Amino acid sequence: MKKLKNTKNKQYTLFTPGPTEVPDFVLQASAQSLVYHRESNFSKLYQAVNEHLKAVFKTKGRVFIFTASGTGAMEAAVANLVSRNEKALVAICGKFGERWKELLTRYGAYVRTLDAPYGKTINPQELERKLKTDDTIKYVFTTLTETSTGTLIDIKAFGEICHKLNRLLIVDCIAGLAADEFQMDNWHVDVAIGASQKALFTPPGLSFLACNDKAWQIIEKSRNPRYYFDLLIAENFHKKNQTPWTPAVSIFNGLLAALQYVTKKGIEHSWQRHQTIAEYVRTYLTKLNIELYSEKPSNALTVVKMPEYIDSTKIIEYLKNKYHILFANGQAELKGKIIRIGHMGLYDKKTFAQILNYFTQVYQKMLKK
Amino acid sequence: MKKLKNTKNKQYTLFTPGPTEVPDFVLQASAQSLVYHRESNFSKLYQAVNEHLKAVFKTKGRVFIFTASGTGAMEAAVANLVSRNEKALVAICGKFGERWKELLTRYGAYVRTLDAPYGKTINPQELERKLKTDDTIKYVFTTLTETSTGTLIDIKAFGEICHKLNRLLIVDCIAGLAADEFQMDNWHVDVAIGASQKALFTPPGLSFLACNDKAWQIIEKSRNPRYYFDLLIAENFHKKNQTPWTPAVSIFNGLLAALQYVTKKGIEHSWQRHQTIAEYVRTYLTKLNIELYSEKPSNALTVVKMPEYIDSTKIIEYLKNKYHILFANGQAELKGKIIRIGHMGLYDKKTFAQILNYFTQVYQKMLKK
Description:
The structure is a homodimer.
Chain A: E1 13-14, H1 24-30, H2 40-57, E2 62-67, H3 70-81, E3 87-92, H4 95-106, E4 110-115, H5 124-132, E5 137-143, E6 145-146, E7 151-152, H6 155-164, E8 168-172, E9 191-195, E10 206-211, H7 213-219, H8 231-238, H9 249-264, H10 267-287, E11 301-305, H11 312-323, E12 325-326, E13 328-329, E14 338-342, H12 349-368
Parallel strand pairs in A: 1-12, 3-4, 3-5, 5-8, 8-9
Antiparallel strand pairs in A: 2-10, 6-7, 9-10, 11-14, 13-14
Helix pairs in contact in A: 1-9, 2-9, 3-4, 5-6, 10-12, 11-12
């Protein structure tokens, strides 16, 4: 792993499923003196970031960049596409799928769901069956990498079905982008969402919405109240390689440095790098009979299921205090029951050999208690 | 001025009316290794920033922090307060006043305006007269510092009138906060908006909404579609010193360093520092018979009016290329007709003595042509 700078108050290295640890060369790039966002130097920066992001999403469509968390870009998708009382199907297998449902409900959509239990993925055949029984479903919303459970959804199959049945497919790729294979155009994905702080190892603050022409035609007609996330306003500035509102210029600087690294060898290399670490982590843990939570694990993180008598909160606290490494707990009803180990970003196997050694020591000590 | 780091591609120092030049100690603070936003180290950071911001707004009310440009926080004010068909009065003397009008229109409000010509401020007596003739106006939206023209609005008088006539007063303080005097609670302002990249000399990416209990009671009842900027969701996390969505942690780190500097001697000192520079700039220019654009200038920037036969675009380009200093042009119909010189942030008189010398040399050369 690249050498990491330490904060006065920080006592750990991040292995959380985003934000990830940001390497020093990205932090230093983000600490450059700022350019003015209505000036040609910013337009060059914007254009470069935009081109790199197209390569990351694997799209020839438009990419918009928001100064906002990933949830902001998710709201942009809903607010710009879906009009009141239109029908959307949300394929849900965790908390981030549920976020789509909440957003759509807020914006007055008529929402159907296709649910899989936490830890399971969604069967594309069930999607096809559901869509065939209801012609009025116009949109399908789902998630590439469900970080609450560490589960991957088969977006390629989703895309084929939606394309065949002529529904719009909108995918939250925030956690999976650059970690799990994703091919927006080839897989017939109409709208895809991403963010800076995951496998692109940049500080949080920027999020992305990529869309194709089919989606754009709907966006041009939608009339939901929106302003900050309005893509028609954004498009007018995008043409000048600018953003409508003052952008987080320092994070643009950091992101460019990270993207140059990521796309230098092609995005496929970034997927491969994440897959190598993910397989190493999973093999290491299963050899020790440690149970994985997800039936279809993502390359972005590994989720470990605790035996009933072990509270994951204690393990996480212990690892943080003793070994200065931070894993993430489960959210809501999964708190205390799982541990989420993030490996999105710029880590290497050697780092994971060391932290998994710490983890299994603590885990096995707890087992014996 | 604190020593400024230079970017490889950047060929100028910013004297734009936001973003401002960010001093090296703030850039370096923002380049610290990141903490996890669901962990106690972030909560400490959040709480510290929040307390400092209360001192900056001079309020005992709630302060919310968004990962978004200032316009995002403006949208939060509209989306959380104003329900469809409610009536709002917008006091407008420039582009940022117009932004309130656009936002309110998008959200279905019934909008009245009180307009002053560009370069003029708004007479509080006219506000009082307008409100007295229409009891159904529930909200007054306006701007502390109108950066498109460099004009200050008398918010203290606005607050007294709105308080007396029982209307809610919402003020965009983005450009003026910490530069022009502003006392939220004492002046009876119900909602105030700010951002990181102006007189708080931090990179752009964070914006703020401060509100009192009177505003909060309305927010709790409003039903506009919103999610990312929903203050009821934010309040649940605010209680834990967290944000609902992944925050721009690196900018929080920078902002804390800047706020510690700003509030160390009290916010009054920051107003005074800006006033000293502003008066110096205005005196310097008027002595040379250079015309100021605004009848009621703010401490955040000075706007210079060009004689009809001089194109400000040429002067700005020349100063950038020859002296590596960047001023801002007028926006829309004011392009080419004015120059906006930002002095919000951490500048000193010596710096301005130098750049005003450059500016007047170029200006006088153009006059002779």
